[in-house]
Amino acid sequence: MHPQLLPALLAAAVAAVAAVVLFVPYVARQHRRRGELGAGHVGLAGVALLYALALAAYVLVPFPQVSPGFCARHGTTPQWAPLRFLDDMVRSPASDGLAAVLRDPALTQILLNVALFVPFGMLVRHLGGRSVPAAALLGAGVSLFVESTQGTGIWFLYPCPYRLFDVDDLLANGSGALLGALLAPLLRLVPGQRVSDPDPSRARPVTAARRLLGAVCDLLLINLTGVLLGTVYRLGILAADGGLFAAQANPVESVPGHELIGFVEYWLPWVLLCVLAPLVGSGASPGQRAVRLTFRTRAGARPRRAARLLRSALGIGGFWLLFLVTGALEESAPALPTATGIVLVVSAVGIMLTRHGLSGALSGLRVTDNRAVRGPVAQPTEPVPA
Fold first, then answer.
1. What's this model's pTM, rounded to 2 decimal places?
2. Got the DSSP string for 349-377?
């Protein structure tokens, strides 16, 4: 693999994992900050996440191996002379003619450093709501941190700096951030960013896409909760069995208490999110609360606990329970996985084709925006920019 491809591939892999972990908090925050979620806004947020991780990977990766004579081979000294690249271009033997000048390595390096921070300025101004001077100053500050990281050998983790601290890079990065801030209005052309009402506290119509998004958030939360609880439990039993370093000699499967790992990873998230969570408030699941949905009876009252549990059992809670039973009885009942898939498809179709979903219809509960309980539903208006 080419060394220059490693940071990009690493950033993409980490961004994919981070996107899954941060998806539900992002959805919840956007519904409270903007009142609703837009596909274009989600796309730009994903770009911002990937850009931030790519910038970090560019600074840190690859990590060279320290060996005798490391500093003699890789050590660098800071370059403090501003516009030193101009002198390098003048001294370059390939500076005759415009084409040769444009191909000059010194100029190419400066232009790449400018381009590297153009997205920073655009995203900070557009998504962060900063002014042009603020975006440019933030870009210069991040650039200073990047150059200091390189100039200190990743803050003295290495015996000497192996990448160059260059003041010209600071000027180029700051200029790129300024240019990006000036170009930020172009990001308004990305579709899917407008909101139907500028007031995020007013209720929105409950759409099928929004209810389906809540279900997706629930599935993510159940899986992530299982991963978190399982990891903590595994570390706990390993530590109790003699420390984490003893795990090489004693794998988890041989440690006392390993029999409960399946319960902690799969059954406990179901108990927490599908049994206990519906008993709180109106019975909405965590994913539904993220998209600001709640439940009411046909008379508009808060449902009783039995109705909340029934709705959960007919929705995500029932599906996850069927999934767990399928895993336990897969060998003796090979038809169960097919049944689980059918339930998932039917539930998704029910969300898309019915107003309150199959769980709401069968439990007698209606899905509504939780802001409608406190105020009127926002009427469709002329879209306004985010």
1. 0.80
2. HHHHHSSSHHHHHHHTEEEEETTTTTSPB
